[in-house]
Amino acid sequence: MSLPRARRDGLRVKETTDGRLAVYDEHAEQGHLLSPLCATVFHLADGHRTLTDLTTAATRAHPTADTTVLRLALTELNTAHLLDNPPSEPDNTPQPALRHIPATELHPPSRDRRGAGP
């Protein structure tokens, strides 16, 4: 299991007065402005905390945050290449909200009701 760890090399980081975090990636020559929650997750992701530990710590500053929101924040940080170690949590990942169901499962085969008595 890999524990999420925020990247530190090649980044210039500056906190803004409104709780956001400005991060400039010197390697990619690209800037990112993290929301207050993503900034908190970025600071907490030290490679030693599980998703549960991150959620517990993040809810101190962001009481409405839950595991789903933390996963989204980690996904965003990973997409922006701001994590050295992307998270992986075995067997406790939430099931997708949408799954494809064959039409035969949605509508049972119709029965011919002709000749069926009361």
Automatic annotation (TrEMBL):
Region (Disordered): 80-118
Biased composition (Basic and acidic residues): 108-118
Domain of life: Bacteria
Record-given protein name: PqqD family peptide modification chaperone
Organism: Streptomyces broussonetiae
